[in-house]
Design goal:
Length: 310
């Protein structure tokens, strides 16, 4: 009898637990999910609608008017030069930021003086200024050189100034986390020259930061509008400037089709940034620890070999 009553009591308690209201933590988690999904919808829905507009025969009639690739064909026919120019500018910007930004980040990471911190802040300053202000400064200083002013190199100069901090900062962070000074001292004790240390110790450990910076530079260069709009000429019109022209002077379907083209170019870069992680400091630190252990093991082995020889 007691056993039967006990089992009934347990069943009633289990039923009450099942019917109990969710806890405060569950309500907070649900609210966070709702806010996140609403924010994503607010940001993504306009992009989806713009893409659909570029594939419909008539935007005002919607999908009911039918789907077509006509607008994409017109955009490619009129603006394919802008596509190739944007890729060329982005590639040139990336090459220059790699050649300048990686050594600069290495030097800033190794130096701990106030001067190095001041230089780092000066490098970041163009990000804090509006793109129009930076472009105006370039026009005031270098606009008199007509050969430079009329070429795409002038846009590359502006893009390098704007994107250089996005190369320096991640590389500098990885180099600082990896404790390159200790690693280089270990390599130097094994007889490695500065060039050997830079290419075999510094660059492998800075690779996550270099990769993150390269993806950021490419994405920002392809999508930069404010600075490019001030610096471009009719013969040096990049993708963002062409996009603004299509929305201002042509049908909404053509502007939306141009958005699709822009989307196709930039999305692989954004997906690559997500796939590769871009958590550069942690990755660099783990690789640095492995490399440091390897150097210490090599030093210990060298010391044992020297003792045995004696």
């Amino acid at each position: 009898m007691n056993t039967l009553l006990t089992s009934k009591a347990r069943g009633a308690a289990h039923t009450r637990r099942r019917l109990a209201l969710p806890s405060t933590r569950a309500w907070l988690a649900a609210a966070q999910w709702c806010v996140t999904l609403a924010t994503c919808a607010f940001l993504v829905v306009p992009v989806v609608m713009s893409i659909v507009a570029g594939l419909t025969v008539n935007y005002f009639r919607g999908v009911a008017s039918g789907l077509t690739l006509r607008w994409l064909d017109e955009v490619w026919t009129q603006y394919h030069d802008s596509v190739f120019l944007s890729l060329e500018v982005a590639a040139a910007t990336l090459a220059i930021t790699l050649m300048v930004g990686v050594p600069a980040a290495y030097a800033l990471a190794r130096s701990r003086t106030r001067l190095s911190r001041l230089i780092e802040e000066l490098l970041v300053m163009p990000v804090a200024l509006p793109g129009l202000a930076s472009a105006l400064a370039l026009l005031v200083v270098y606009g008199g050189f007509s050969a430079l002013r009329m070429s795409a190199a002038f846009i590359v100069v502006g893009h390098v100034i704007f994107t250089l901090p996005f190369m320096v900062r991640p590389v500098c962070a990885v180099c600082a986390a990896a404790d390159l000074r200790t690693l280089e001292e270990g390599a130097a004790s094994l007889g490695a020259s500065f060039v050997q240390r830079f290419f075999t110790v510094v660059l492998p450990n800075a690779r996550p930061g270099i990769l993150a910076g390269a993806l950021a530079v490419l994405t920002l260069s392809i999508g930069e509008f404010n600075l490019t709009w001030m610096l471009h000429t009719p013969d040096t019109k990049t993708l963002p400037v062409g996009l603004a022209d299509t929305y201002a002077s042509m049908r909404i379907e053509i502007g939306s089709a141009y958005t699709i083209l822009f989307f196709v170019m930039t999305m692989p870069l954004l997906l690559a940034m997500q796939w590769l992680g871009v958590q550069t400091p942690g990755t660099g630190a783990r690789k640095a620890q492995k490399t440091q252990k390897t150097h210490k093991a090599q030093q210990a082995q060298q010391a044992r070999t020297h003792q045995d020889a004696q």
